[in-house]
Design goal:
Layout (H helix, E strand, L loop, with lengths): L14 H13 L8 E2 L1 H8 L3 H13 L3 E4 L3 E4 L4 H25 L2 H19 L11 H15 L3 H6 L1 H18 L2 H16 L3 H12 L6 H7 L13
Antiparallel strand pairs: 1-3, 2-3
Helix pairs in contact: 1-3, 2-3, 4-6, 4-10, 5-6, 5-9, 9-10
């Protein structure tokens, strides 16, 4: 589909549909960080009025996915690794707390059932070990892996509270996984988390989860060197 029309439907795209399509293109890096886009260009692409595009752009700007610069136009926002690092810390705090609650509140048999479900999920992940980027079958299975743990202690509303901000992590993940072909590593990290849970080692499981979610420090220098136009200035964190 070329995006210039709305096939099988004579109704033009709504501002909401346009917003979702542009957002998806940004998250998938089809629209690259720093790329110039215009209302005219998008109005033409989707065959809608500029006012519809303007509404979509406003939402994207509120989410920090596009930046409007006077005299320079509208650009896809750069990847801000400082912001991503903070979001990953939040996500890590949630998932470490989930592991704490699994060990504190779940009965032994419920934890065993959870481990069995996670191991079944990992078997599905293994079938994706050859995938080179984050656009195949793996992302959905990955998402279910984390959701299964979070749901086991009834905390998924916490993730949904962060869902809008986490879209920025989604864009980073699409970059990060493809950049270093990291799917085999992610599967191995998931397995290490499950093994620690199975062995009853709460602190180790939390440590393995933190290692799994901290995705910036190992690649930031190389990523910025190879794609210097993609990133905001990165301060880094001294641990």
């Amino acid at each position: 589909m070329n995006g210039n029309a709305n096939p099988g439907n004579t109704q033009p795209y709504t501002a909401d549909e346009i917003y979702k399509r542009i957002l998806k293109s940004i998250i998938k890096l089809q629209l690259e960080p720093g790329q110039l886009i215009s209302e005219n260009q998008m109005a033409q692409k989707y065959n809608v009025s500029r006012s519809v595009i303007r509404t979509a752009f406003t939402r994207l700007q509120q989410l920090r996915f596009i930046e409007v610069y006077p005299q320079r136009g509208t650009h896809i926002s750069l990847i801000d690794l400082n912001y991503i690092a903070d979001l990953l810390m939040l996500r890590t705090a949630v998932e470490k707390e989930v592991i704490y609650e699994m060990f504190t509140f779940l009965k032994e048999k419920d934890r065993s059932s959870l481990v069995a479900a996670l191991e079944t999920n990992i078997a599905e992940q293994e079938k994706c070990r050859h995938e080179q980027d984050y656009y195949g079958k793996f992302p959905k299975i990955d998402s279910v892996f984390h959701k299964t743990m979070i749901d086991s202690v009834g905390r998924y509303a916490l993730v949904e509270l962060l869902s809008t901000d986490m879209l920025h992590i989604s864009r980073w993940r699409n970059f990060d996984v493809a950049f270093d072909h990291r799917i085999p590593e992610l599967i191995d990290q998931h397995r290490a988390i499950v093994d620690a849970i199975k062995e009853g080692k709460m602190l180790l499981a939390q440590e393995k989860m933190a290692d799994h979610l901290e995705t910036i420090s190992n690649i930031s220098d190389r990523a910025i060197a190879m794609y210097p136009t993609y990133f905001e200035k990165f301060k880094g964190h001294n641990h």
